[in-house]
Backbone:
């Protein structure tokens, strides 16, 4: 049986631009293995965060030593997927786009799939990370933290 590693990535920006977050969920052969959220307290944009999400997926592939031919990265960002697949030419966020394209060249066997936002299990983790960054910066008061 062929092993399959599905990596779902998503990003969320509290106000745009503003602080944000990245969420990643890994499904390995049908088992939900890992869920993580990364808060970004710097002012950023949703486009940058979507690029960062796929970069973090590549970092996870490297860290976990996954075989690239077994990896499918799922994202709801047509922009980020277009950059990584070479369909779109970057006009902004050049440094992040170059980093993403370099990683795609290192892992040429990784596949990508566009999914609808409501189908993305990483969404909740991205939103939590974004809210945590906003709370830490005092943009949201702690009574909102109970919603996390």
Residues:
């Amino acid at each position: 049986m062929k092993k399959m590693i599905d990596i779902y990535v998503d990003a969320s920006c509290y106000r745009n631009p503003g602080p944000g977050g990245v969420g990643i969920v890994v499904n390995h052969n049908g088992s939900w293995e890992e869920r993580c959220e990364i808060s970004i307290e710097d002012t950023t944009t949703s486009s940058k965060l979507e690029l960062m999400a796929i970069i973090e997926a590549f970092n996870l592939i490297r860290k976990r030593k996954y075989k690239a031919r077994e990896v499918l990265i799922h994202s709801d960002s047509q922009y980020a997927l277009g950059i990584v697949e070479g369909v779109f030419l970057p006009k902004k966020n050049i440094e992040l786009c170059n980093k993403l394209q370099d990683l795609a060249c290192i892992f040429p066997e990784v596949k990508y799939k566009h999914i609808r936002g409501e189908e993305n299990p990483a969404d909740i983790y991205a939103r939590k990370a974004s809210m945590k960054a906003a709370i830490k910066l005092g943009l949201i008061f702690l009574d909102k933290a109970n919603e996390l």
Remarks:
- The chain has one domain: 5-147.
